[in-house]
Specification:
The protein contains five helices and 15 strands. It is an alpha+beta fold and 255 residues long. It folds into two domains: 138 residues, Mago nashi protein; 108 residues, no CATH class. The strands form three sheets. It has a seven-stranded antiparallel beta sheet with strand order 4-3-2-1-6-7-5, with helices on one face. A six-stranded antiparallel beta sheet has the order 11-10-9-8-13-14, with helices on one face. The longest helix is centred in the middle third of the chain and has 18 residues.
Length: 255
């Protein structure tokens, strides 16, 4: 094989993101650099919320933010994330097309050398990957706790309590039922989590304790229990997210 035809081996990647036309206090930019050239995973994150000088402090607080949301980190992350990132790199079609309304640019490090800025065609996948990695950083430094969703299913003969805890720090999902834990498939859990946060949650109907009458109840980590189909309803009549939540948990309960 001619030496110039050898395939470049990614040893790291830099992701640069701009939220685009999203208004403050949500608008933000970040730079996330990953380096696995020495076997471990070293990361550097710089995240900055933009245009907040247009808002009062109270307006920022009212949206659930603080005045200190910018964040920087440099250190190690569990190397379990290296393979998913490498797989996404290999599946990605790269272009030189500029982004018009925000998104992610990437700079690949190949064979120890930094390349040029490219645009991944699969923007949604890269934005989700970046969000997962940032969440992993937050968990690793104890800035945030793992996401835990509790679920209760009551039928005519039984009551089953279970929970799903997503540990981004080490990319593991723990399903607990009747005091017994087991690790479940990451992608299955993430797809179920997407469904969980798709419907409308009516907090005026929520309670601080789970229901005991026949039905399905869910608590998404904030201490409020909602009944599926009553306090949790589909936004789009053509897409039954509530039904998918029920079937997703029922499959886990059966296994």
């Amino acid at each position: 094989m001619h030496p110039n035809s050898a395939k470049s081996i990614p040893t790291g990647i830099v992701l640069e993101y701009d939220s685009g036309i999203i208004p403050p206090p949500y608008s933000h930019v970040f730079r996330l650099a990953l380096d696995w050239s020495k076997g471990s995973l070293q990361v550097q994150l710089d995240l900055h919320y933009t245009d907040r000088d247009e808002l009062s402090e109270q307006e920022i607080l009212d949206e659930g933010f603080t005045t200190q949301d910018d964040y920087s980190y440099q250190g190690a992350l569990n190397k379990v994330w290296i393979k998913p990132v490498q797989e996404l790199i290999s599946q990605t079609k790269w272009t030189n097309k500029p982004l018009t309304e925000g998104g992610i640019y990437a700079i690949l490090d190949e064979n120890g050398k930094s390349g040029v800025s490219k645009t991944p065609a699969n923007q949604d996948e890269w934005q989700l990957m970046a969000q997962d990695l940032i969440q992993a950083i937050y968990e690793s430094v104890k800035k945030e706790l793992p996401l835990k969703v509790s679920y209760r299913l009551v039928d005519s003969s039984d009551q089953i309590d279970c929970s799903l805890t997503v540990h981004f720090a080490d990319r593991q999902v723990i399903f607990e039922k009747n005091g017994k834990d087991r690790i479940i498939h990451w992608e299955y859990a993430i797809q179920l989590m997407k469904m969980i946060f798709t419907p409308d949650y009516h907090y005026e109907l929520a309670k601080e304790t789970p229901g005991s009458k026949r039905g399905a109840y869910i608590e998404c980590g904030d201490g409020y229990w909602h009944e599926l189909g009553k306090g949790v309803v589909n936004i789009d009549p053509s897409f039954d997210a509530v039904g998918k939540i029920k079937s997703g948990f029922e499959e886990l309960i059966r296994d």
